[in-house]
Amino acid sequence: MVDTTVDITINKAVVSLVRGDITNETLDAIVNAANSRLAGGGGVDGAIHKAGGSLIMEECRKIGGCKTGDAVITTGGNLKAKFVIHAVGPVYRDGKHGEDKLLASAYKRSLEIASARGLRSIAFPSISTGAYGYPVDEASQIALKTIIDFAKANTDIKIVRFVLFSERDMEVYKNTLYKLTTVE
Ligand code: AR6
Question: What is the three-class DSSP state of 150?
Fold first, then answer.
């Protein structure tokens, strides 16, 4: 039953894992796995720009770019989510080029930007684990640990949802969440 949604409460936030397409989410913000030029592309980036329409790209062009490990916010355009937070994860080389810190930072900056805007709910894809090649098991540990640490220290964001595209990713994230929340 790998597709069953998982919800856990950390401090004031419900962290959940669901399987699906992030462009269907109705939360305050969805996070895009963008590139540093904010130029659009394939994967979740392509799906978000396609569903959200040209206003998102117009704002991306005005912003001009985003460093790896950082994030920027635009309108949600035609999406049900009000905003898109474009986070830039690292390209995975061999794990020895600071990829872990950059990936953690992409998640943390997205949460900080959402919080600074007064947003209460946010959905993430699995950043860097598609075209950028980050091994999903390691990436899931970094992603979930960063979110759990943020939720322990902050009370403003109430819903953090991971929207996982494949059954395998769902299974990996579930196992990681279980390990992170039962070992402590
Ligand atoms: N909803 C949720 N997750 C999705 C969706 C969707 N609609 N579509 C794909 N995924 P990727 P990256 C998953 O490649 O590795 C782009 O060209 C996908 O299965 O989208 O950070 C950008 O422009 C995978 O698990 O992002 C950048 O150049 C995850 O989203 C580059 O790719 C991330 O895969 C970024 O690469």
Answer: helix
User: How many CA within 13 A on the CB side of residue 177?
Assistant: 22
Residue owning the nearest CA to atom 27 of ligand 1: 35
Number of domains making up the chain: 1
Burial label, 166 (beta-carbon count in 10 A; 0-12, 13-18, 19+): middle
Q: Percent of the chain beyond pLDDT 90?
A: 96
Taking only the tens place, the pLDDT of each residue in 68-78 is 999 999 999 99
pLDDT at 1 over 90: no
Per the structure, the complete domain to which residue 101 belongs is given by 5-182
Residues with CB under 6 Å of ligand 1 are: 21-23, 33-35, 40-45, 47, 89, 125-132, 163, 165-166, 169
Domain at 20, CATH number:
3.40.220.10
Pocket test for ligand 1, best of 22, 44, 105, 122 (most atoms within 8 A of CB): 44
